[in-house]
Amino acid sequence: MSIAKLEYIWLDGYQPVQSLRSKTKIEKGFSGKLEDCPMWCFDGSSTEQAPGGSSDCLLKPVFIVKDPQRKNGYLVMCEVLSPDGKAHPSNGRALIDDDDNDFWFGFEQEYFLWNPETEKPLGFPEGGFPRPQGPYYCSVGARNAYGRAIVEEHLDACLEAGLNVEGINAEVATGQWEFQIFSKGAREAGDQIWIARYLLERIGEKYGVAINWHCKPLGNLDWNGSGMHANFSNTVLRTCGSREIYEKVCEAFRPVISEHIEVYGADNHLRLTGKHETAAINEFKYGVSDRGASIRIPIGTVERGWKGWLEDRRPNSAADPYKVAARIIKTVKSAEVEVLAEDLKVA
């Protein structure tokens, strides 16, 4: 009988940024199917999710892939439930209203490879600074690209696990990189991002390199911050062929700036300054091919006759993709109701 190692992965209750946690469950004769992953529990008092006197929290498996780094291993993404079986307050996945998987998401996850001894990105000389940013974006060569071995190993691990990674590239700042993941269905898009983050953290252990998800780890210095741009669409955006409808959807985001910023990642005021390819945090604007906008309308959407997707550029690198997706879906659906109502009036 085969013995499988199931790595149960979940998000803790730390604020303002949740962290990944995991532990291994050994299962004999495991089928490899999600439905055969049993519910499990953990000590929530050690993860800011329960008091010591009533510390059990439940782990509900929701997504599974092969573990590319372990023999007979699986990575199992879990939702955290309270003992009564209801979604725990820390459970952002439970907020997503996308039961028919009509929403498609593509997240562009940026991050820094970080030297834990110097507390600087890879590529920063000890006691000083590298050349100004410019030559590092999509770069090649030892003078410009730092940590490629880690990035390549992570890409291979993600692909072997079956994650839908659509690309990687070196980013604008020294030691900064990005991977992109796409999924049909908001929940699975979040699942895949979290599993990919988990794999990157674990590979970093091997090299003694930390992964810095903070949106502006170099503070006010003249270096780009890190985002997690959210590309999204639903049937309306993919098929409408109407600039007017696209603009109505974009306008629906204007009155709910604060609601979006609230879940778009901690310390985003340090990143969303109106500089370094960002819009100011308290402003809202959108435009075709505008990387300084809050929401960019991709040129590909226009070229397809206003059939495609939108990109919200405000979510930062440490944001929870579940909460980002949940908020975007809520806003887009509110715009659809308005569009349909106006269409009925015209008819």
From TrEMBL:
The keyword Transcription does not apply. It holds the Pfam family Gln-synt_C. GO terms for biological process: glutamine biosynthetic process. It is found in: Cytoplasm. Keywords: ATP-binding, Cytoplasm, Ligase, Nucleotide-binding. It comes from Paraflavisolibacter caeni. The lineage of its organism: Bacteria, Pseudomonadati, Bacteroidota, Chitinophagia, Chitinophagales. Catalyzes the ATP-dependent biosynthesis of glutamine from glutamate and ammonia. This is Glutamine synthetase.
